[in-house]
Design goal:
Blueprint: H1 2-17, E1 37-43, E2 54-59, E3 64-65, H2 70-77, E4 81-86, H3 90-93, E5 98-106, E6 109-120, E7 125-127, E8 134-136, E9 157-163, E10 174-179, E11 184-185, H4 190-197, E12 201-206, H5 210-213, E13 218-226, E14 229-240, E15 245-247, E16 254-256
Parallel strand pairs: 1-8, 9-16
Antiparallel strand pairs: 1-4, 2-3, 2-5, 5-6, 6-7, 9-12, 10-11, 10-13, 13-14, 14-15
Length: 259
């Protein structure tokens, strides 16, 4: 009986390893289990990712727009990466060459329009074009005096470092940042928040707000909570130049929290 079960499992695993659709010449093709994406990577001349407001992909042969997964879209956007097609369309694209027209929008303008030639084999979608899928996007003309400024590729954060008198980091339960002039709380990335929390570091603003803060001086009100109590409340004066966010205050951003 054990031998029979083992034989059945072997057959099942063998079938799963094969990507082929019967009758399409793929019966004996072994495919990797990687879920492939064909993506465009958009970057500014200084290497920083282009964080689009939105994008869409038009399937020219079918005269329709492809559906997008908003969660995956936002995850890729952080790195300036935008999926054109993925293995979810492999069967539709197998043994074909199709043009997908990508359009990217930022500040109400089209900043990228690109035809991407794709297809698929027995296992995965493939890029069939010759040009690089990494594309440089020029800075907006509105940068004015910043057009010729060479910026470092560092992604800057302005953050508070909270520590106890013995030097141990303060591991807050939660925190929030209130933009006083805009009368609203800033959104926080929970993954980044937890990664920095290990060191007692809590971001006030980062370069994702460089455009909004350029040539301004704004007060961000930070509040940190531990065991249901406010243990830190602090106004932080920030702004930005052509490249990065900056701290304009005079006090240290390292703060000792009494035990």
């Amino acid at each position: 009986m054990k031998i029979l079960i083992a034989a059945i499992l072997t057959v099942i695993q063998s079938c799963e390893a094969k990507g082929g659709d019967e009758g399409n010449g793929c019966e004996d093709v072994n495919c990797t289990k990687v879920f492939e994406h064909i993506s465009l990577k958009l970057a500014y001349p200084n290497g920083q990712p282009v964080l689009l407001d939105s994008s869409k992909v038009f399937r020219v042969n079918e005269n329709r727009y492809l559906e997008q997964d908003p969660v995956s879209w936002n995850e890729g956007r952080v790195w300036g990466i935008y999926t054109v097609v993925n293995d979810g369309m492999r069967k539709e694209l197998q043994n074909k060459e199709e043009i997908m027209r990508f359009t990217g929008y930022l500040n109400g303008e089209i900043v990228c329009e690109r035809d991407v030639l794709v297809g698929a084999d027995c296992c995965h979608v493939n890029y069939l074009g010759k040009e690089s899928l990494t594309q440089e996007i020029p800075f907006f003309e509105e940068r004015g005096e910043c057009a010729d400024v060479a910026c470092t590729k560092i992604y800057m954060h302005i953050y508070l470092k909270l520590a106890y008198p013995n030097g141990q980091p303060v591991l807050l339960d939660s925190s929030k940042v209130f933009w006083i002039n805009e009368n609203r709380y800033l959104k926080q990335d929970p993954v980044s928040w937890n990664e920095a929390r290990v060191w007692g570091c809590y971001t006030i603003v980062n370069d994702g707000m460089q455009k909004e803060l350029k040539n301004k001086e704004e007060i961000m009100h930070f509040t940190g909570y531990l065991n249901g109590t406010i243990v830190c409340e602090r106004d932080v004066l920030v702004g930005a130049d052509c490249c990065h966010v900056n701290y304009f205050g005079t006090e240290s951003l390292t703060q000792i929290i009494s035990l």
